[in-house]
Amino acid sequence: MAARGIIIILFLSLIITAICVDEKWTSFIFAQRWPPSTCHYIRCERHRIPPQVTSWTVHGLWPDVGNNCNDSWRFSWDKIKSLEKQLEASWPDLKYNGRSLWQHEWRRHGTCATTLKATNNEFRYFHKVLRLNRLDAFNPQMALEKAGITPSCKKSYPTEDIKHAVQQYFQTNLIMTCTTQRYPETNRTLLMSIYLALSKTFTVTTLHYSNIHQCKPGDKVYIFPVHDIYCSK
């Protein structure tokens, strides 16, 4: 009976913890990034974009509660192995071309989303993010193309034009990040990431987050073709 009582207490404590965590977060930050800019910035190990990557890729889906909500929930590759091809195309680890990014995103952010039924385990979390990345409603490339902004090695666009285009498309505020003129290979500012806020029902909502260094107003920003990191072709 004593053992049974301990089990019940532990079970109740887990429920209470889950409720507390759920009450602390109200929305997701959906981060997407442009592969050549990202690969340039992080110094991709092989200095190339995997051939299956053709558009904007996922950086992560982050509950705004914080990080590392459940360190005891270890990442299990077997749970998402069936999604491998989709992950490699839409959520690639550009730095090391392996599984380290997915493990990091699950442990740091995915475990914070497990209080929501749609993302309450590894498979559901990664599957949901991959689906979001395929939707036209959250597609930065479609937003830019609609405004006549296309990848180019020669043509740049004012920061304000890019931001206006994506905000008009998504009908909400957002954050854009750019690389700085950090490396001599380009000596140009590149569009790297777009951050949107999504509600718990996965609709666009107001972004209440500013702890990210954004693209500078007045900058001329380049968007290199997806498979040309340094525009050398």
Overview of the structural elements:
- The structure is a single chain.
- By secondary structure, the protein is an alpha+beta fold.
- It has one domain: Ribonuclease T2-like (Ribonuclease Rh, Chain A), CATH 3.90.730.
- 36% of the residues lie in helices and 16% in strands.
- Strands 1, 2, 3, 4, 5, 6 and 7 form a seven-stranded mixed beta sheet that branches.
- Strand 5 and strand 6 form a beta hairpin.
- Helix 7 crosses helix 8.
- The longest helix has 23 residues.
- The radius of gyration is 19 Å and the shape is globular.
- The N and C termini lie far apart (73 Å).
- About 7% of the residues have low confidence.
Give a topology summary.
Layout: H1 2-24, E1 27-33, H2 35-42, E2 57-63, H3 77-80, H4 84-90, H5 100-108, H6 122-134, H7 140-146, E3 156-158, H8 159-170, E4 175-178, E5 189-199, E6 204-205, E7 220-222
Parallel strand pairs: 5-7
Antiparallel strand pairs: 1-2, 1-5, 3-7, 4-5, 5-6
Helix pairs in contact: 7-8
Keywords:
7 strands; Ribonuclease Rh, Chain A; 8 helices; globular; 233 residues; alpha+beta; seven-stranded mixed sheet; single chain
